Amino acid sequence: LKILDEDAAKTKRLQHPQAEMIAQDMIQLRERVMKLKEDHERIYRLSRSEGMPSVNWGNIMDEKLDNLNNKGFGQDLPTVETEVEEHNIFQSEVEALAPHINAGGDKEYIDSLQA
């Protein structure tokens, strides 16, 4: 920005017809750069807890597992197929969310869900 400031000063000194516009552009550029610096500082100084979602995936998985376990067994083939599909979906969700739950460090809990 220093070099641009020097060039803007030259335009004023040499009485360039757009010197005022260039000076105004420099002011706006400096403001944008300062805002970007502030955003950068804010983002890169976030503490771990500020940047993490506050969702308790363990509780969500427990609720889903309880719902599946509390359902009765199907009496006919279409019902059983639907229940198998629900269990397969739940298994896929557990596998997809395992890294997020693992981040909490509860290895035994993850193993019990995946078993």
Radius of gyration (CA) equals 30 Å
Helix fraction bin: over 70%
String of helices and strands: HHHHHH
Question: From the structure provided, what is the oligomeric state, counting identical versus distinct chains?
Answer: single chain
Query: How many strand units?
Result: 0
In round numbers, the mean pLDDT is 78
Shape: rod-shaped
Main sheet specs: none
Number of domains: 2
User: Low-confidence parts, pLDDT < 50 over ≥5 residues?
Assistant: none
Number of helices: 6
Q: Report the span from N to C terminus.
A: 60 Å
* Backbone structural class: mainly alpha
How large a portion of the residues is in β-strands, by DSSP E? Answer: under 5%
Descriptive key words:
single chain, 115 residues, mainly alpha, 2 domains, 0% strand, rod-shaped
